[in-house]
Specification:
Blueprint (H helix, E strand, L loop, with lengths): L3 H22 L6 H10 L7 H25 L7 H28 L5 H24 L4
Length: 141
């Protein structure tokens, strides 16, 4: 069973990898979380690129802990890298759908275009696979 600490660490590692890919694939604009900050603080999302990125990292770290705790609670095991990476892939897809449907559309009020959805989907799948592989490797678990 992966520990909470391993989940937090795996979430950080996966978020770093995800963010690098997001920066390579993206248009250079702020992350969608900057729009969330702007919604509550007022102003333009571009004004909140750094707070948005910090919020994004916090989400990623906490999502890692949720995965590490949640997988065993539903009766599954992170005992091998392959199985854990596969479970991470599913988790990344769940995060992608939740992010697109709930956060982007319902909370922020964005209507992402095809390129943003492609990038958003790709980076969340990468996040999940990296998180699962990290936890399956048992580096801190």
């Amino acid at each position: 069973m992966a520990s909470i600490v391993a989940g937090l660490a795996g979430g950080l590692v996966a978020t770093i990898v995800m963010t690098i890919v997001m920066m390579v694939m993206g248009d250079g604009g702020p992350p969608p979380t900057a729009a969330l900050v702007a919604k509550f603080a007022g102003g333009d999302p571009a004004d909140y690129a750094m707070p948005g990125m910090i919020l994004h990292v916090i989400y990623g770290i906490l999502a890692g802990a949720v995965f590490a705790i949640g997988v065993p609670l539903v009766g599954l095991s992170l005992g091998s890298i392959a199985v854990a990476a596969g479970l991470g892939l599913v988790y990344g897809i769940i995060l992608m759908i939740g992010g697109m449907m709930f956060w982007m559309r319902m909370v922020i009020g964005m209507e992402p275009d095809r390129d943003m959805m492609r990038m958003f989907g790709t980076v969340h799948v990468i996040y999940g696979v990296v998180l699962g592989a990290f936890l399956g490797a048992g580096i801190l678990g």
